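#structure-requests
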Amino acid sequence: MPFETALTEEDLRRNIAAIRARMDAACQRSGRSPQDVRLLPVSKTVPEERLRLAWAAGVREMGENKVQEAYGKWQAMRQDMPGLRWCLIGHLQTNKARLVAEFASEFHALDSLRAARALDARLQALGRSLDVLVQINTSGEASKFGLAPQEALAFMRELPAFASLNVRGLMTLAMHTTDEPQVRQCFALLRDLRDRLRQDAPQGAALAELSMGMSGDFEWAIEEGATTVRVGQAIFGARSLPDSHYWPEGKA
C-alpha cells in the first residue's frame, strides 16, 4: 500500500509517533533501549514548505541524497531554523565536496579515498570537521555504491590521514526485496563487520554507529543492531519518482 502524503503538521506528528512506536516495539523485541536508536527523517524531494511543517512538528535533523537539493534547502531555511542539522546520505561526486563541507553535519556514504581527500581539503579550509560513516555494499549488487566488506579494513586504515573526518561507523542499503532473511542478512553482515573493525581498525573505539534500515525494513534493521534508521516515505509520504532517480549512474 502506498504511503499517504503528509500535508499538515498534525499528519507529520501522527506519522512520526507511529514510526517511533514501531521502533520502540522493535527495540523491546531485541532487548535494546529505544534511546540507542535514532530516527533520521529523510526529506529528499520534499518541498521546503512541508519541511517547515516538519520543523514545527519537532524534526531537528533531515537526511538528503542529492547535494544540490540539500544545499538549496539549507540556504533557504538556515536563518529561520538555525538548529536544523542536515545529513547527506547519498553518493558524493567530488566536485560537490565544497558544498557538503559548508553545510552538512554528517555524511553517511563515504566509499572512496578520492571523496575523503576532497572533503578533508574543503573542511580544513573552513576550519570544520565532519562526522562520516563508511558505506558498505552488503548486498553484493553491482547497482549499489559502497565498498565490498573485504575492502573495509584497508580503507579504514587510510582514513586517519584526513584529520577533519570523524569516522563514526558504517552505513548500508539492504537488498531491495521483501524477503526478510535476505534483508536481515545484509544488516547482520554490517553489524558483524563493524564488530570486527572495532578490533582491527585505527578508529575502532569510535565505530559505534550502524546506519541501516528505511521505511520498508527499519524494524528488521533495529532488531539486527541499527543505531540510525533512515525513514522518508513513511513520514512524508510516497515519492513521485522511483528510487533509481536519486542515485547517480544508476547506483544506490
